[in-house]
Amino acid sequence: MAQTISVGIKQLIEEGRKEIQEVTADEAMELAKRDDVVIVDIRDVRELWREGRIPGTFHVPRGMLEFWIDPASPYHKPKFAEDKTFIFHCASGMRSVLATQVAARMGLKPVYNLKGGFGGWKEAGGPVEAVEKK
């Protein structure tokens, strides 16, 4: 029997945007100058190798996000326990809407989505650095 998908990705993203706050690339560039801001890149590592990254970002594979945020998880990363502002991004700002939504629902705050994602950052003239394969 074929699956019937009742809620598509567009709807999930629309609903997610209603629950989160977003920043533009220009706003993110200003915020990135602060010591209390962490830009979180949730793209696949192959995207980083191919496209580069925003300098100083903290890379989190999307599939591990909830596990890295939760202090009760054996995979918890101390970065998420710091008193910081977190800006999540992906390639175009859609996956990161969902990541920002779940991070906020888990209690991480303040959290923002980078509108337009990495593509919007590059389009706005934001700095990019190469990422070498490990």
From TrEMBL:
The protein's superkingdom reads Bacteria
Q: Which residues form the Rhodanese domain?
A: 33-130
**What InterPro entries has UniProt attached to this entry?**
Rhodanese-like_dom, Rhodanese-like_dom_sf
SUPFAM superfamilies noted in UniProt: Rhodanese/Cell cycle control phosphatase (SSF52821)
GO MF, one annotated term: thiosulfate-cyanide sulfurtransferase activity
Signal peptide as annotated in the record:
none
Pfam families membership: Rhodanese (PF00581)
Q: What SMART domains has UniProt attached to this entry?
A: RHOD
**Name of this chain's protein:** Rhodanese-like domain-containing protein
Q: Which organism is it from?
A: Kaustia mangrovi
Q: Which taxonomic lineage does the organism of this UniProt entry have?
A: Bacteria, Pseudomonadati, Pseudomonadota, Alphaproteobacteria, Hyphomicrobiales
